[in-house]
Amino acid sequence: MREEAAKRAKRRKWIVQGSVSVAVIAVLAIIALVIVSSIKPAGPGPKNMASGGIVLTSTTKAVTSPAQPANATPVPTDESATPDKAHIIVYLDYQCPICNQFETTNATQLGQWIDGGLATLEIHPVAILDASSNGNRYSTRAANAASCVANSKPSAFFAVNSALFKNQPAENGNGMKNDKLLSILKGAGASSDAITKCVNDEPFSSWITARTKAATSDKNLVNPANGYFGTPTVLVNGTMYTGSVSDASVFASFVQQTMAAGSGGSTSTPTPTATPAG
Fold this sequence. Notes:
Layout: H1 2-38, E1 54-58, E2 61-62, E3 86-92, H2 97-115, E4 119-125, H3 138-152, H4 157-166, H5 178-187, H6 193-201, H7 205-216, E5 233-236, E6 239-241, H8 248-263
Parallel strand pairs: 3-4
Antiparallel strand pairs: 1-2, 1-4, 3-5, 5-6
Helix pairs in contact: 2-4, 3-4, 3-5, 3-6
């Protein structure tokens, strides 16, 4: 009896040790996956985003550029080539409610300015709110989708950008699936086999991650009011806008003042739009 009890105790010991070993191996595997994911190198960037953003010269035209190799340093846009224009740069996250306010408020006048040759609009999609979509990674996936459009149909980017904000999922909700994303792109005029494959395969996700890390560590993009980078970050000819995101006239006045300060009082500057985009 004692011998049999000893054998049973020994078997239980091995079972417990084996279970612990399996658990440890599983934990180590998860840690390894996290580490590998965190050091995954950035993939190639999309075409027409050499600066890290797409430069729109009208609501249907963009500055073209070749795809950037993996880990290539972005090439800043040469604003000196068109000194008579307001160069507006926007860093945004498609999950960001405040970005949505800025877009909803200013889309109409931004479109009028770039169509009228008064400004260029450079949009940098980043992903700082992936944790706000319950594991859906909506920020990264939407930024990848926008990059797919920049890569394959840049003429539709302005419309797609607006459509993504009009259909923005609730923060801390469940994001949206690819079929919904693709439906939004199609409704904004961006639909093709290449775009569908790009949205599903996410070839630009690691590039978006790299661009996001670069933006969050760029001292020139730190908001002086709070000491850190956030979205939206808006620059006009290199000067950061920190005013209202819900008053189009305030932003238009800032653009006017910035242009006037840089041109000795030129009056060929954007003016407020009567009706903001809805």
